[in-house]
Write a structure and sequence with these properties.
Strand order of the largest sheet: 4-10-9-8-5-6-7-11
Largest sheet: 8 strands, mixed
Radius of gyration: 35 Å
Order of helices and strands: HHEHHEEHEHEHEEEEEHEEHEEEEE
CATH class of the largest domain: Alpha Beta
Shape: rod-shaped
Structural class: alpha+beta
CATH topology of the largest domain: Endonuclease, Chain A
Length: 362
């Protein structure tokens, strides 16, 4: 520790700037008159006597008369004991602060901008643990491993967990190696390009942060049904639809569960067109009043407004317009839409194919 650092440490221990200056100088001189000490340090001569009296009262020095006022440093044992006790006290204070500290929650507003990625990650983890509908997640392998306990809870709650794994860098593709997904994710895809961190949970909240190589570092927390839908479309079209599936917990045999009506239509439309009978369980909300509703019935029609000429296999973007089903259940006819439905009777947040059967003559 050099002289300047020693003076700073003494000031942190409770000495004033002039007291620290005079004491360090006196340690070097051993003993000196008041005027000699003032000349050897940055303390003005007019202040040196007051400074010496204060240092003597603190036990750092002692003064004596020898033609004029002189001073010498005391045995540093008492000084060291004082400094060590202060150090212990500061250590205990640090431990007490850590023990008492509780991470303050970010107030839930419609939209919040934060600076720290940890805030975004912690909010996402909190939301995922409480999920029982759907989790859409874009993460690095390391982030996925850290979120596994929360994802496992969501999976146990019955949520559909869709995960896109992506490398931190374009040359880090080996990090996308097979991991243990059973009991953690419903479906996993690999994206070979670095991607923002995205978490969309139960259609009510979203967390977003740019990838680490982004010029601007910030985070977005969304607690709004409509704004979350924007992130949902970004996830589906840019991060999900075009990338390869590496794990799928569903076998392709009923029951087959969907959280998005467009994915249901991608699979069901060819079956309905060929005359197959699909029995599905619908869970969602009445669009008029938002009351929860569940029913099981036959899908009698699939309607969609294609934004381009449809092929044999409909893409997600081809279903960007209105998509709805007609379901006959217990003598009632329901029109069923997806997220944000207003024209249909029901907004479905879970569609489960319970059975698929061919035509009577087929």
């Amino acid at each position: 520790m050099d002289t300047a650092e020693l003076r700073t440490a003494l000031r942190n221990a409770g000495l004033s700037q002039y007291q620290a200056e005079a004491y360090v100088a006196l340690l070097q001189l051993g003993a000196a008159s008041a005027t000699e000490l003032a000349d050897a340090c940055a303390v003005p001569t007019a202040r040196i006597y007051d400074v010496l009296r204060d240092l003597e009262s603190k036990g750092y020095i002692e003064t004596y008369e020898q033609d004029s006022l002189h001073a010498r440093a005391c045995d540093p044992k008492s000084v060291m004991e004082d400094l060590k006790s202060r150090a212990v006290q500061l250590d205990e204070a640090a431990e007490e602060i850590e023990a008492r500290w509780q991470q303050p929650a970010v107030d839930r507003h419609m939209l919040s901008i934060v600076k720290r990625f940890e805030t975004v990650f912690n909010r996402a983890e909190e939301m995922i643990r409480e999920a029982d509908g759907e989790v859409q997640l874009s993460v690095t392998p390391e982030q996925f491993d850290e979120l596994k306990p929360a994802l496992s809870e969501a999976y146990e709650n019955g949520a559909l967990v869709k995960v896109v794994l992506h490398p931190e860098r374009t040359d880090d593709l080996e990090a996308l190696a097979q991991r243990e997904y059973r009991g953690v994710a419903t479906e996993v895809r690999h994206r070979t390009l670095p991607t923002p961190f995205v978490a969309i949970v139960d259609r009510t909240g979203a967390c977003f942060a740019p990838h680490d190589n982004s010029v601007n570092q910030y985070g977005v927390l969304v607690d709004d049904y409509t704004l979350t839908y924007v992130f949902h479309w970004y996830f589906q079209t840019a991060l999900w639809e075009v990338w390869d599936v590496v794990y799928d917990a569903q076998t392709g045999e009923p029951p087959i569960v969907y959280s998005d009506i467009r994915h249901f239509v991608q699979d069901a439309e060819p079956l309905v067109r060929d005359g197959n009978r699909i029995v599905a369980h619908i869970k969602g909300y009445e669009t008029d009043g938002r009351d929860p509703i569940e029913f099981t019935g036959e899908v009698t029609d699939v309607y969609y407004t294609a934004v381009s000429t449809p092929t044999d296999t409909l893409s997600f973007s081809e279903l960007a317009g209105q998509v709805c089903l007609t379901v006959e259940a217990d003598g009632e006819t329901y029109t069923v839409g997806g997220w944000g439905a207003v024209l249909e009777d029901v907004e479905a947040n879970r569609i489960t194919i319970e059975s698929i059967s061919g035509t009577p003559d087929g």
